[in-house]
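Subject: two folds for Thursday's group meeting

Dear M.,

Sorry for the delay on this. The cluster queue was jammed most of the week, so I only got both jobs back this morning. I'm pasting them in the order they finished. Each block is the input sequence followed by the predicted structure tokens. Could you check whether the formatting survives your parser before we put anything on slides? The first protein is the one we discussed after the seminar.
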Amino acid sequence: MRKKWWYLALVTAAGLLAGAVAVAGLAVALVYPSLPSLDVLTDYRPKMSLKVYSEDGGLLAEFGEERRSVVRLQDVPLVLRQAILAAEDERFYEHGGVDTVGVLRAAVSNVLSGGVREGASTITMQVARNFFLSSERTMRRKLNEVLLAFKIEHALSKDEIFELYLNQIYLGQRAYGFAAAAQTYFGKPVGQISLAEAAMLAGLPKAPSSFNPVVNPARAKMRQQYVLRRMHELRFISDAQLAQAKASRLVVRGSSSRVQSAGASHLAEMARQYLYQRYGEQIYSSGMRVYTTLRMAEQKAAEDAVRTGVVEFNRRRGYPGPEAQLNLPADADERARVESDALARDEANGLLPAVVTEIGKKQIQVRLRGGEEVALGESEVKFARYALSPKTPAAKRLRVGSLVRVVQLAPGQPWQLTYLPQVEAALVAISPADGAIRALVGGFDFARNQFNHATQAWRQPGSSFKPFIYSAALERGITPATIFDDAPLEVDPAQTGDQLWEPKNYDGEMDGPVTVRTALIKSKNLVAIRLLQAATTEFAQAHALRFGFTPGRIPPYLTMALGAGEVTALQLASAYAVFANGGMLPKPYYLTKVTDKDGKVLEQFAAQPAERVLEPRNAFVMTSLLQDVVRRGTAAAASSLGRTDLAGKTGTTNDHRDAWFAGYNPDRVAITWMGYDQPRPLGPGETGSQAALPIWMRYMSVALKDVPMKTYLVPEGVVTINVDPDTGVPDSAGQPEYFFQEFTPAAQQPPGGWGLNAP
């Protein structure tokens, strides 16, 4: 009887197995012929985003629905390949597309856990799913996935399959493929990632949203630690490597709509707009590349300089209080969730969200995204004294649970307490020889404000416009030694276009008779107006327009002497380049070439020939005057750069609404600006020398590093005569001063001064 039972069971099992095999065979016979062609794999043409590069090959930005950089398998570091195999498919090079051992292990795990806790998809099956199938969970989809995996394994080598997987898999933050993910999360090429970074990237395919280090750093860290343990179990890494990788602190970049290596978002947007108008929607998926004139080191220096300038401006204003107040639960897990949600706020140009965890008499402890603890020192306690006062309203009081912003302006520097700025700032730098834009920062943070303050903002230039009035005066026969009276002045409404005007010097002081050189050094408003009267407003306006300013934005009134017109920072840069370039006006440009994904050049750009708009004598004498502004005038702080070839002019408008510095040497012209989008006072003392000049100096210290100092050659037709610096009268014991050797009467000059065909 017992024998019959076993016999019956064996027959039944055999029948069921035969039936299953028959059904599976029938399913394969019916489904396999209908499987899609593998042409999409054998002729792989993924969607590739538009990439914007600097002149020296640095990636500035990326635009498209899918961020992707296609790489060859051999260019992917071994440590990343091993991390992926450890996390996703350790037997990839052993199975034939479906890992039966893995399937059995997953089945046992799922039965024991009472649910679907572990999957058994191989890398090949994931390739099949990503290229051909939906994410629906049905038996038919799973069967198709398995059959496609077999078909792929027969058509492609293991390395070819692995390479497709590396480039196609979605890894969060719109990053497709591990090369794009390395740039997105860590801001570096895939070939440069560390073991710890590789393990975090390898943990993403399982659930990009759950293990995303930007959105969920705690879970991302847990997943990374799991991958590292698996690598150790498989003997891919040693005990020492495991310990070091686990202890490594990863710097994960914040979420953004583009990759930003140097903060060039505003110029990258200029490039995107041009390409979209030229080529249309295809730019977002065809892998086109556009190369700009920016230089990475200079662009980074410009971004750092603007950030530091704005943070310092904020500190001069005082600390207004925290960004928000969190109600922290007593339960540790719930508290961690509340903090994590609050810290998910976007970084703003290096200003990181942080939660206050402890307040002492000499330091404030805060927690950053990812759990890092940072101590803010005694200087920050002093900076936050208003917010720490018990008299401060509760919403603005600093306490445990306050959400704040902190910044580290340079590696190794102490962390500072700060806050999101309302003020904006801009910097643009060009090569005076050809107009190539070498650095451009259009605002403090592109993610918060896309308006380009370097190219689109029309602002009053203040005293930074005075050099063009002085240049017009030189054309009229006035010399640097000519005496003008720095005395009270009343201007009739007919001459101002408005009302009776009683201008004053910035400091309220008047020095009486002074030379033109002294007047510019001290930025004397009253002398600038008298110079304009001597040159006439019509002549000076026409002369200024030769520098590239927009007609209609520079009205022919005496207020023009104090910069009451409107300019953009880029306009001002090319105008100052005329002085730096010996009288030649360059046309700014920022694109060098556009290529397709394979590097074929679609468009090439070159500098346009500069136009002579000012004779060399005038440009040289103006540079001499502006050098003295740097040596001993309102921009004397720039002398700390230790160069003798710097020239420039500060600018501050009425009520401190705009602060400027325009400066140059023969190699670089840079303009810096600070102000509010809706013009209002920056605050007492916020002049061009206080707010804008330090930004310029930080940038130029990098841009001119290792660049030899230049001398300005005296052009033909300029003579040197010793004069008394107080009276301007020739004096053999006085100081050398420049004069035009001969002067052509205004009646014989072209409108606005010397033009292209000047003798």
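Second protein, same layout:
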Amino acid sequence: MYKIKHVFSAILFMMAAVVVAQDDTTITKEPGHTNQSKFRQMHQEFATPNTYRSASGTPGPDYYQQQADYKMNIELDDKNAKIYGEETITYHNNSPDVLEYLWVQLDQNVRAKDSKSPLRNPSRIAVAYQPATFTKEYMSEPFDGGFNIEHVKDTDGKALPYTINRTMMRIDLPTPLASGEKFAFDIKWWYNIPDHTVDRARSGYEYFEKDGNRSYVIAQFFPRMAVYNDVEGWQNHQFWGSGEFALPFGNYEVNITVPADHILDATGELLNRKEVFSKTMMERYERAKKSYDKPVLIVTQEEAEQAEKSFSEKKKTWKFRAENVRDYGFATSRKFIWDMQAVKIGNKDVMAVSLYPKEGNPLWEEQSTKAVASTLKTYSKHTFDYPYHKAISVHAKNQGMEYPMICWNYGRPNEDGTYSDRVKFGMISVIIHEVGHNFFPMIVNSDERQWGWMDEGLDTFMQYLAEQQFGKENPEVIAPNESYPSRRGAPAKIVPYMSGDQSTLAPIMSNPENVYQLGPNAYGKPATALNILRETVMGPELFDHAFKTYSQRWMFKHPSPEDFFRTMEDASAVDLDWFWRSWFYTTDYVDIGVKGVKKYYVSDKPTPEMEEYIAANNMSPSDLPPLVYLSEESEGAEGKTPSETSQTMNAFMMDNLTPEQRAAVKEPKFFYEVTFEKPGGIPMPLIVEYTYADGSKENVTFPAEIWRKSDKEVSRVMATQKELVGVVVDPKAETADIDTSNNSWPKKEEESDFNKFKNNLEGDN
């Protein structure tokens, strides 16, 4: 047997040499090339590991991060919609560098009269305008919402020189700030609060004409320190509007003065609850701390409706303290209904909280706090136990924005209290998403200004898991035989985007200001990629461990994209460079199909290729050792075993195998060579469903590495006892394949989803 194998190997080697020699005489050699394999390692794309960030994705031994502590006194002028503030910032230089100046973010300057942000995009005449849009665009003076800086001083009252460059303020230090030192300074400021319903500002008020009240959701309201780290130095990229925020962690002491009849909640622990709560509110609060199954109303709708009429001239100050947070936000109004519920997270209780005007009911009273509680449990399971003592959902028209412990969310019923499923699920989903932002980026503190996908994409992926879990937990919302109607996350949802015009696509690894379609790019595509990575490439067990490892390594720290990519590989032993490159660094798409199927039979008769080789080498068949051939044509061989159709095979079994061994051998009756093609650029696991003549099916998943040596097409030989009648690639639509018309053999006649999508677009145009 060894001799036969040895001789046959030599023959195959000679045949290959002949083919190469023939090719050399007819084909012009192409010039050499660099490594173009999609499976090459990402040494060129990734930053070089160092003592700050290791090759494994962990913080290195010299990792550092700065700290910025704030003491603030804030007053809200409800009559004039203005906010005033004085703050003392204590900045801790934990870096090894000496700092000559500090950079402070003035994000409200994006709304200044002279802001360049409205000028950054081209404009054209529209086909038609709504009157309000036309008036705002062409007939209104710009809103003056920028910061008015009254002074910048050191703690001794001495003025500090500063320079404002749009949304960034440089403070020049009197003496350089050495490593390990800290510097404290004061800023006094005010600005006009915008109506956030006009152009969906992230922060501002909504005016309720019927009762004359405003509801405030306030954030980016104070000058905030920029991040200084080992990756960017100072992250002082201007705030244009889309790229969100990069902020250091710190401790906050905040006093907020508002009208005495307002209800207010904010980032941090309320320190003077007994001063600002009535006796009845305190009793309800104590009950809420022990209520784990449903919310307790702290302020009822009836009480909120009564408060709407009062317009108190008195003031009340709410005092908060927050430790190790990266930002601060608060919401206040006399219109607010307030409910709370305890949630068991690990070994401690967390309060799930909702604030909403009567205009949000009955939907908000029914679903908001329930969604907060469910989100905290699901996210904690997949990352780390939620570390803060509360999470607040605030109702705000057309809003969806996040801050530590507090977020604003849309979803408003009709005036008669009715609402559609679209409104209901939209509200639940935005609450899950914004509460989920507590984990990414409020705790796993990525640089949103540069890498929008690191918070939005990871959060949208987790949102998908949390939505599906919410559906399972709430049969009154989702029927037991149905799944939650997630907008993003499922592979099929991203197909229209990934199959779109390449001139309007950008890689995920792009600054959020520079992408064409921010929603699909920063939210949908990374969420889908991670869902596919979890379900199809790695499997939930490996993925979940690696994702939790990343989350816990980088909680309360500043990770970079490479830290995420490296940790996912480090904690799973799965080489994913091909995946990151394809999904995150390119605009490639998935398209894998079945090119063809050939049927073979076992025979003693040489194939035409072998006969050609024998003739070319002046040989006779007797010069060859006994061989077995697989031929496309073999009369009378269909449905017979190899030993029945090949005397050589039969003799081999008789001469080399014992009767027991022969009985154990499985002799397939059918042999097929299935060729798969890959018109798309992204290599993916090859998921195949084989259907046989008896109606049975077999599913096989080949790893993505099957494409490592041939990026366009690959073949697999299969030997089976049953006749093959059908082959389908990606039968459960797991890979976001943009064109399913080539996914089947025999080819199906019905129109593919991709072609239907294209035709629909053409019809719309």
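Two things I noticed about the second structure. The domain at 68-120+131-308+316-451 is CATH 2.60.40.1730 (Immunoglobulin-like). Residues 2-26 form the longest helix (25 residues).

Cheers,
T.
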